[in-house]
Design brief:
Elements (H helix, E strand, L loop, with lengths): L9 H20 L27 H14 L2 H12 L3 H5 L6 E5 L2 E6 L8 E5 L1 H14 L4 H6 L10 H19 L7 H14 L4 H8 L4 H5 L6 H15 L18 H21 L3 H28 L1
């Protein structure tokens, strides 16, 4: 196999070696005088190492500047992909109302069920909200047939596959116009987002949730640490080591009073302790049961408020 011209790829060589080893094992099991272990582990080619592929900071900046300068619908969609780290397929499936308000002055982008059969909410800052608003404004200028074909979707299209092809082509052309040093693909934007978030101090568990991964090992494939990052993290850790800090302590009432404020305080403390315990549980089924228990405590607090209001 080593003398093949053109040479075989590692995956083909591995498959052929596996078939040959299985054949030799079968022959040996049927009584043929064959030496055991003719094909050993070291005979197999090494597995390719999956390396993170983020854009360099300079290429990333040049590309985003070019996309902002272009300003059309594909450019805004690609900027949204870069700013949120979503997959290109998830961007294609964003709903018209994908921007959700999750709290006071807090917004999130609702990412629908995608590659790993999960949905999530990605925090959206002012820039992300502006990108969505720009897409909505440009969407109104799309051909009526495109709008009829995608009434509930953020990005109008004739066909999903055609839109994906257009976005990839627009990104490659923008990378060439910006003078990027390498070919730019949508997935490299996702790698760039992951690396940027890690450098800004986002923890790996939080980054795993942002990317929609189920395994932290997959997240580690996306991030790239340079020597500059290691030096910064090292010196920050040394500075924190010289500054002692104290953990906040929850004031749990030891003797709650038998009045509405005391009951409210006891319920709030119970919910707080329950949430701390829930986050330590690994089993998802148990976590959901504890969350339902928390909802009952919240309902009890609301019922208490209604009783107090009725008495007044």
């Amino acid at each position: 196999m080593c003398e093949q011209d053109p040479p075989l790829c590692n995956k083909t060589r591995e498959n052929r070696l596996l078939c040959l080893r299985r054949l030799l094992d079968d022959l040996s099991a049927n009584g043929h005088p064959l030496q055991y272990g003719l094909i050993r582990r070291e005979d197999f080619p090494p597995h390719p190492r999956y390396l993170p592929r983020p854009l360099s900071p300079q290429d990333d900046q040049l590309l985003q500047q070019e996309l902002r300068r272009t300003g059309d619908l594909p450019a805004n969609a690609l900027l949204l992909t870069r700013a949120t780290g979503i997959r290109i397929g998830e961007c294609l499936d964003l709903a018209l109302d994908c921007l959700r308000q999750v709290g006071e002055n807090q917004w999130a982008l609702h990412v629908p069920i995608g590659k790993l059969h999960s949905e999530r909410l990605v925090p959206a800052d002012a820039d992300v909200r502006q990108m969505v608003a720009g897409i909505l404004a440009l969407r109104a200028q799309a051909p009526p047939a495109y709008l009829d074909n995608s009434e509930s979707l953020l990005l109008p299209r004739c066909r999903r596959s055609r839109l994906a092809q257009d976005l990839r082509g627009a990104l490659a052309e923008a990378g060439q116009r910006a003078g990027c040093s390498c070919h730019v693909t949508p997935h490299r934007l996702r790698h760039s987002f992951a690396t940027e978030m890690l450098r800004l101090g986002v923890s790996l568990p939080a980054l795993m949730q942002l990317l929609g991964h189920h395994d932290i090992r997959m997240t580690l494939r996306y991030v790239q640490l340079t020597q500059v990052d290691l030096q910064r993290e090292f010196h920050l850790a040394r500075q924190h080591a010289s500054q002692p800090h104290h953990l906040p302590v929850m004031a749990v009432p030891t003797a709650a009073t038998a009045d509405p404020p005391g009951i409210h305080q006891a319920l709030a403390a119970a919910r707080h302790l329950l949430e701390i315990y829930r986050r330590q549980i690994v089993d998802e089924k148990t976590r959901r049961r504890l969350q339902r228990l928390d909802h009952r405590l919240l309902a009890a607090a609301s019922q208490l408020d209604r009783i107090i209001t009725a008495e007044k």
